[in-house]
């Protein structure tokens, strides 16, 4: 099971290195620009929040010139904040698109290196549904990351500013109450978040299994029709659906508690605001002010205190987004770890040595070592020498070719390959033809795309 823990941060840092490979990258520029927009947005929001307090004062004093000038000022500020919010949304969307492009290209580079795609889909029993991890999970990771990361980074600056402003207007009691309230809420949410992260991971895994089952029927519809196996495949598909639904029900139950805690913190914050303001008012601190001045001051202080509470509760509200991001980060990060491990250990094939001599080979299926396919096999393949391998179905003829091609590793003995793999050396034809997307010409010269290059041979 995966949780919101050190493993998450380790995998998250691995993803960050892909999204921000160097300081002069496009993603770094977009991210810094987004930070600047958000900081400027907070400055304008502060002035927007003070608009009502000035209205209270000019209306209470029946100041018509002041009312007119303040209205013009308010309109300008309102247009500015609307522009900044729209800019934030646009930059966030562009940042999401570029992040997804870079992450997907990185995963494609590792996934299609050598035969890693074969090892992940056929031999590996740890990484489920690699196609889903690259497409859907990668998309959700970039989407959540682009929406919350900038807000998380500017939150400390916003909180410090409004904490100082609250201290100036209400004394030390205001900031202390808000901080204590936030700490208690954070501790509660931390305990509620971890099981949600684990269930998000499990749900994505089962979503992939369910989708793969339908893709399997789609790819083999004619074969299934010859068998008239609709009733059996319906049972198998419904079984995967039930497993998914049960996990989703458990996830929704866990999210119910987390949502309750988040919403409770939101509404408790509004009550806490007036409790904080009550202390200086009932303590006689503002007894020297006129009613209109007191109304203006209460409006101003209420905005500052409420926004401080809002800044804290916004972090709490992001808990749902963080849990979703943590779940898919585990899935993408786990796949990146596996691909990186294969790359470091040199498990990939080399395109420079293929085919030749097998000596004392002992082989079995990669995921079933108890089953022996070949024992003490020794033979040599030479150019211009035809070899016919016969035997009953399932005796290991295709498995022998998998060992020859390096798709499977022999358990003992050695395989000496002296001819390159490809059109200039040894070419293997799979039992099931692979028709990729593209023109008829590309199908003929596959796996090469350049007709002129391949036409020379």
From TrEMBL:
The ABC transmembrane type-1 domain, residue ranges: 75-320
InterPro entries with a match to the protein in the record: ABC1_TM_dom, ABC1_TM_sf, ABC_transporter-like_ATP-bd, ABC_transporter_sub-D, P-loop_NTPase
Sorted UniProt keywords: Membrane, Transmembrane, Transmembrane helix, Transport
Keyword hit for Metal-binding: no
Gene Ontology BP, a term: fatty acid beta-oxidation
GO molecular function, a single term: ATP hydrolysis activity
GO annotations of cellular component type: peroxisomal membrane
Family: Belongs to the ABC transporter superfamily. ABCD family. Peroxisomal fatty acyl CoA transporter (TC 3.A.1.203) subfamily.
Listed name of the protein: ABC transmembrane type-1 domain-containing protein
Annotated source species: Paralvinella palmiformis
């Amino acid at each position: 099971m995966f949780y919101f823990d050190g493993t998450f941060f380790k995998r998250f840092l691995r993803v960050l290195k892909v999204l921000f490979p160097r300081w002069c990258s496009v993603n770094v520029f977009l991210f810094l620009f987004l930070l600047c927009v958000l900081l400027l947005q907070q400055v304008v929001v502060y002035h927007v929040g003070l608009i009502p307090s000035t209205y209270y004062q000019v209306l209470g004093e029946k100041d018509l010139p002041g009312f007119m000038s303040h209205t013009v000022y308010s309109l300008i500020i309102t247009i500015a904040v609307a522009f900044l919010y729209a800019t934030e949304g646009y930059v966030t969307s562009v940042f999401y698109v570029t992040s997804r492009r870079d992450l997907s290209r990185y995963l494609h580079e590792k996934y299609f290196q050598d035969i890693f795609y074969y090892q992940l889909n056929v031999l590996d029993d740890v990484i489920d549904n690699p196609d889903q991890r690259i497409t859907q999970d990668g998309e959700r990771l970039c989407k959540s990351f682009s929406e919350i990361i900038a807000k998380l980074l500017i939150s400390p600056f916003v909180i410090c500013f409004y904490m100082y402003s609250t201290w100036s207007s209400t004394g030390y009691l205001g900031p202390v109450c808000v901080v204590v309230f936030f700490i208690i809420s954070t501790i509660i949410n931390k305990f509620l978040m971890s099981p949600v992260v684990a269930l998000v991971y499990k749900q994505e895994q089962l979503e992939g299994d369910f989708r793969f089952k339908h893709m399997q029927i789609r790819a083999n519809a004619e074969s299934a029709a010859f068998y008239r196996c609709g009733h059996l495949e319906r049972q198998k598909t419904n079984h995967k659906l039930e497993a998914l639904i049960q996990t989703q029900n458990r996830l929704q139950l866990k999210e119910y508690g987390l949502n309750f805690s988040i919403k409770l913190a939101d509404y408790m914050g509004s009550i806490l605001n007036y409790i904080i303001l009550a202390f200086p008012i009932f303590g006689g601190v503002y007894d020297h002010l006129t009613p209109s001045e007191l109304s203006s001051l209460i409006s101003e202080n209420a905005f500052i205190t409420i926004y401080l509470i809002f800044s804290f509760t916004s972090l709490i509200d992001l808990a749902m987004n963080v849990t979703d991001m943590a779940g898919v980060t585990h899935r993408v990060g786990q796949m990146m770890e596996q691909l990186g491990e294969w790359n470091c250990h040199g498990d990939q094939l080399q395109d420079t040595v293929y085919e030749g001599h097998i000596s004392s080979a002992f082989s079995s299926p990669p995921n079933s070592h108890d089953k022996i396919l070949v024992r003490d096999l020794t033979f040599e393949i030479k150019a211009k020498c035809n070899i016919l391998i016969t035997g009953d179905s399932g005796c290991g003829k295709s498995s022998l070719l998998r060992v020859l091609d390096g798709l499977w590793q022999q358990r003992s003995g050695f395989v000496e390959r002296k001819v390159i793999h490809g059109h200039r050396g040894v070419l293997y034809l799979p039992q099931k033809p692979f028709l990729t997307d593209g023109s008829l010409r590309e199908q003929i010269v596959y796996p090469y795309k350049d007709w002129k290059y391949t036409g020379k041979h």
